[in-house]
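Thread title: Can someone regenerate the structure for this chain?

I was given the following input by a collaborator and told the matching structure tokens would be attached. They weren't. Posting the sequence so someone can regenerate them.
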Amino acid sequence: MFKDQKDLTEECKIILREYAIPITRPRIQLLGILLQNKGPLRIEDVIRLSKGKIAISSLYRIINIFENYNLISEFQTPDKTKVIELSNIEGHHHHIFCNNCGAVDDFELDDILEQQLKEQIEQIESSRNVSVLSHSLELLSTCNDCKCLEIQ
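Best answer:
Regenerated them for you:
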């Protein structure tokens, strides 16, 4: 996707400007990590990938800033691990979690099933007199790596 680090840095600066977020080196570094590693990342993965270039206290402040600007989304895994991902990059999707190692991945429902889910939500709104703001579907699984470990 990016030819080199300079291209990645420039793309980060463009995105930060689009969101009117002041440009700092740690913000560029976090955004670069998220751009290079498609999909959701656990906070510990971000810390590892930053190779010590982002102080943990700064990381949490940047995450809050990015969330306030709707640049990233934050959610928790079933075991309460904090996970972040870029917002609006992949479109509407859901998450699948490995119950053993904590791996997180994105998946999409096909259009027909997503439409059926939307219709079901509309029925729930009507029958319960509520307004559903959003929905998420989370699957607990055993990932292929963990399955292979179980076999050995």
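The two ends are 37 Å apart (CA to CA).
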